[in-house]
Amino acid sequence: MDISNPQNKVALIAGPTASGKTALALHLAKSGNFIIINADSAQVYSDLPILSAQPTAEEQRSVPHHLFGYLDGVTPCSAARWAADARGVIAHAHATGKTPILVGGSGLYIRTLLDGIAPIPEVTLELRTEIRAMPVEQAYAALQHYDAPVAASLAPTDISRITRALEVVQSTGRSISEWRKSKTGGIGDSITLRPLLLLPPRDWLYKRCDNRFEMMMERGAVAEVEALLLRNLPQDAPVMRAIGVPEISAYLNGTLHRDEAIARGQIATRQYAKRQFTWFRNQAPIAWPRIELEINDSNSDNFETIFQ
RNA sequence: GGACAGGUGGCCGAGUGGUUAAAGGCAGCAGACUGUAAAUCUGCCCGGUUUUCCGUACGCUGGUUCGAAUCCAGCCCUGUCCA
After folding, report:
1. pTM of the full predicted structure?
2. Which nucleotide lies closest to A115 by the C1' atom and the CA atom?
3. Distances A184 to A62, A113, A161, A189 between C-alpha atoms, Å
């Protein structure tokens, strides 16, 4: 245990996209010996600094930032992968007397870091690719055959969960529901968490989503997607489905006009914010403080209590 | 001025006499959520406190019919074409 940081404090600022997390974290981080750690599943990729709304290079220089753009788009991230990486960064921060601030909107990632996750062995790329190539009906039928109870618990249309359950039984010979009876790797019990959930007014949030996407378009999002497309990554790679990539791709290949691409990108952003809102509102521990205010420069200081 | 085409629920768009509160899609709202989660999926979605209930509804007005979004007449509006 490190004497300079006896409490192993970890701050967390979570909330939907465009809720002002990044700015708030940066603002608060400047007041002390902090580092900022990304907790967003799209901001991990180096291919999308603009479209995934990573802090600017300048911002990243003002305070140490970690796990932003640290993976190449060919490497799909996962909750477990990110959690392991975050664990390492946090341990190092604590060892050097710094307090990490986790900032992000990926609820599952954050939960995995804190609570751990089922210790399921890595699934081979071959099997995974094979299973993901299956149409839903076929995948569901296969799951009914290999793991009927889990199949029964899932909607026959839920391709994402069906394929995961299927790849797990097929590669380990054991039901995913069995695996899930245990969780490993969570650090929640060994740290002092200072969480803060940002759940601002909906109309304010949506306006910011709209503005943000337009700003991205003006600041190079198109060129970013253009470069990404040249890489010919698989369509289902996480980077390829980041908000804005499909919309801007459609614009680039002439399927959509610029205005339509923007409108759709804005809608996708808002819908995503909405989903995150629902996640944090209902999935996060009730004890976590919820801030239902609009975050801005004039009230940011009020949240310094998060670090006390 | 004339000829066609068309006006459907917030938007797009099916429906051409009853089984239609009106397919489907979009947007919106609510929810789920353990390894690609910026993913994936579910419910609601004209109004009325639940309903096999009531009201209102397919440009407007009137008509035909047991019954009309669907047929007829007139009017208004939109698009394309001819003048």
Report:
1. 0.93
2. B34
3. 35, 10, 20, 12
